[in-house]
């Protein structure tokens, strides 16, 4: 498939003290969720608040399609509900509402009165490639830009060792266009890999010359 995308802007977030070599050049404020109503902010963990902050910074007018991907989603809430059921306790409706894969986008849309398309993705490790192809589809429909966010929450200890995970909460967001910014190109990779938000941040920072997923992604210098 012929592919032509441009990166106009981006933001990244890592928890303070996260053990990682990635230091985002564009890092959002440590005061997560400051621009959200308190009742909505309380529904989100730090990853969700950081994701909403990034979406708001990259789309301040709330006028662009938003695509959000996470490989594991709200596993802590899902596991807690399963443990409650095992112990014979009812499921919390509030916890259930935040366990679905589009919960963060839903909270953001309420907070920002966002009425453009919203899409939540899970792709078994191929989230980054899925984000770019879905964004390309929206751009081909005539939207001037698309915001693509990629996040991971902390993984509960019960799941550690059973699946791949970056080892810390992390979020990266990009504003993509068809003609403004730095050009993204895709070629055939030497091997398929599973990018995480941290490896994407490293690449966007210029710490890596390319990013391998289902394709090999390269970003032209300005």
Query: Strands of the biggest beta sheet: in what spatial order?
Result: 3-2-4-5-1-6-8-7
Question: Into which percentage range does the β-strand content fall?
Answer: 15-25%
Radius of gyration: 17 Å
Tell me the distance between the termini. Answer: 25 Å
Kindly name the structural category.
Answer: alpha+beta
Describe the structure in your own words:
- This protein is 30% helix and 20% strand.
- The model has no long low-confidence stretch (mean pLDDT 87).
- The protein has 222 residues and is α+β, with helices and mostly antiparallel strands.
- The longest helix has 14 residues, at 127-140.
- Helix 2 (46-58) packs across helix 5 (103-112).
Provide tags for this entry.
single chain, 222 residues, eight-stranded mixed β-sheet, globular
Short description:
Helix content is 30%, strand content 20%.
Topology:
Blueprint: E1 5-13, H1 38-41, H2 46-58, E2 66-69, H3 75-86, H4 93-97, H5 103-112, E3 118-121, H6 127-140, E4 146-152, E5 170-177, E6 182-187, H7 197-204, E7 211-212, E8 216-219
């Amino acid at each position: 498939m012929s592919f032509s995308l441009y990166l106009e802007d981006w933001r990244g977030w890592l928890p303070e003290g996260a053990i990682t070599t990635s230091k985002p050049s564009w890092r959002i404020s440590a005061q997560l969720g400051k621009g959200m109503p308190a009742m909505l902010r309380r529904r989100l963990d730090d990853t969700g608040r950081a994701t909403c902050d990034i979406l708001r910074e990259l789309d301040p007018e709330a006028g662009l399609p938003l695509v959000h991907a996470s490989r594991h989603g709200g596993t802590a809430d899902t596991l807690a509900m399963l443990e409650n059921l095992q112990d014979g306790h009812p499921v919390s409706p509030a916890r259930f509402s935040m366990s679905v894969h589009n919960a963060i986008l839903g909270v953001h849309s309420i907070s920002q009165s966002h009425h453009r398309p919203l899409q939540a993705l899970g792709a078994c490790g191929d989230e980054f490639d899925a984000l770019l192809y879905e964004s390309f589809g929206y751009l081909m429909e005539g939207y001037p830009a698309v915001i693509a966010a990629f996040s991971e929450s902390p993984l509960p200890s019960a799941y550690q060792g059973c699946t791949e995970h970056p080892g810390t909460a992390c979020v990266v967001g990009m504003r993509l266009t068809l003609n403004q910014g730095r050009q993204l190109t895709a070629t055939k990779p030497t091997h398929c890999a599973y990018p995480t938000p941290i490896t994407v941040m490293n690449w966007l920072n210029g710490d890596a010359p390319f990013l391998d997923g289902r394709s090999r992604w390269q970003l032209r210098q300005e």
